[in-house]
Amino acid sequence: xxxxxxxxxxxxxxxxxxxxxxxxxxxxxxxxxxxxxxxxxxxxxxxxxxxxxxxxxxxxxxxxxxxxxxxxxxxxxxxxxxxxxxxxxxxxxxxxxxxxxxxxxxxxxxxxxxxxxxxxxxxxxxxxxxxxxxxxxxxxxxxxxxxxxxxxxxxxxxxxxxxxxxxxxxxxxxxxxxxxxxxxxxxxxxxxxxxxxxxxxxxxxxxxxxxxxxxxxxxxxxxxxxxxxxxxxxxxxxxxxxxxxxxxxxxxxxxxxxxxxxxxxxxxxxxxxxxxxxxxxxxxxxxxxxxxxxxxxxxxxxxxxxxxxxxxxxxxxxxxxxxxxxxxxxxxxxxxxxxxxxxxxxxxxxxxxxxxxxxxxxxxxxxxxxx
Length: 371
Prior knowledge:
Order of helices and strands: HHHHHHHHHHHH
Radius of gyration: 29 Å
Structural class: mainly alpha
Helix content: over 70%
Number of strands: 0
Distance between the termini: 75 Å
Mean pLDDT: 76
Strand content: under 5%
């Protein structure tokens, strides 16, 4: 009588063996469906980010402003042992006073200096165009395209472009107000907004995400403060040097030379062009002196002062930095160029920590320097 039991066991084993391919196929289908959903989610996120890129860049600019206010409040805490809210209020009041006084001072001087600067550059570009035409080189094309004075229209022509001017001014003002108010809100309680982002990941990864976000914030604060110090030093040095040489609109030339440091490598090169054009009417020797002094100041700042100021910030590879500037500039225009460096700085931290270390398993602290 044991034979039927044996037959039933064999039959049950055969049934289970027949069910295994079906279960494996179902698991494969679930994995395939899950992978497709992940790819679809990633693609949808990239598409939405692309469509909202302008707004995202404005939000990041607000984060930059909040990082600046937070960095100033932290620095003030070394000298004034009071609460963070009071230190932040002092920083906001001081920066507001500086902006207001600078605006009042600039309203009376900068527009006239800008018009003089543009007229000089326009005239020198005309001379350069005539000299190049002797060699068969048309620098600006048949329409010229060198009239910088058109950037400052006369009052009787201004109302002809009123609609365009009002639209551009309104958009700029609205974006500026959004950046200011968002920056103030972010700076009031940055940890609360950080913890809100941390809640989006699973509980086991929240401590790691919090650590990475703190490191990104530290890198952003260090880089931003260093850049601001470099801009102020470069502006002051170039302004003083060109003023002593006797160049017109020395302040604007120094200001554009300082602001050009916000876009490394390419910015200082482009900033030398207005300096050379303004010096051309004063003779070849003045051009040599002006360009030479500018090059010396820029070299000292770039190779000595800059590395000393940025020694606590992340060292960004030059080639990847230029690639980031070119790509973001081609995708998002002037705002992409202006924000390329800080975006690359924090993006690099995220890639190194969350992908290279966590996903690939490389230990950048113990192993070779992969950065």
